[in-house]
Amino acid sequence: MQILDGRKLNQEILDKVKIGVKSLSFQPIFCDVLVGSDPSSAQYVRMKAKKAESVGIKFHNANFPESITTEELIKEIKALNSIKSGLHVCPAIASPKQREELNAGLQLGTYR
């Protein structure tokens, strides 16, 4: 049985990602979409922002109130996805109903 050093492995991976990001001809952008105000979700987003920025990836946080409708949210995500600058959108949706609707639509290919 081999015991892994998680912190060492994490740093090795981050170092490789940082080198890869530096070799790009553009600065990639990671966008996290947060719906609602769940403190745990907000903390997770902050952690992702810190990691992204530590390897040279620009971070954009798009926050929306829990009251946003699924249709409005999809419109906002489509607008973010239309940015042609290496942007990757990662939804972190707090509302269970919206999460279900959005996941169903994405699986069916309805929302792109």
Please specify the SSE layout and strand pairing.
Elements: H1 6-22, E1 29-35, H2 39-54, E2 58-64, H3 70-81, E3 87-93, H4 96-108
Parallel strand pairs: 1-2, 1-3
What does it look like?
- The protein is built from four helices and three strands.
- The chain has helices at residues 6-22, 39-54, 70-81, 96-108; strands at 29-35, 58-64, 87-93.
- The chain has a three-stranded parallel β-sheet with strand order 2-1-3, with helices on both faces.
- It has 112 residues and is α/β, with parallel strands linked by helices.
- The model has no long low-confidence stretch (mean pLDDT 81).
- It is 52% helix and 19% strand.
- Strand 1 (29-35), helix 2 and strand 2 form a beta-alpha-beta unit.
Produce a short descriptive summary.
By secondary structure, the protein is of the alpha/beta class. It contains four helices and three strands, in the order αβαβαβα.
Following the backbone from N to C, one meets helices and strands in this order, namely: HEHEHEH
Strand content: 15-25%
Number of helices: 4
Physical arrangement of strands within the biggest beta sheet: 2-1-3
* Rg over C-alpha atoms, rounded to the nearest angstrom: 16 Å
Overall pLDDT confidence: 81
| CA-based shape | globular
Query: Termini, distance in Å?
Result: 44 Å
Which percent bin holds the helix content?
A: 40-55%
Major sheet description: 3 strands, parallel
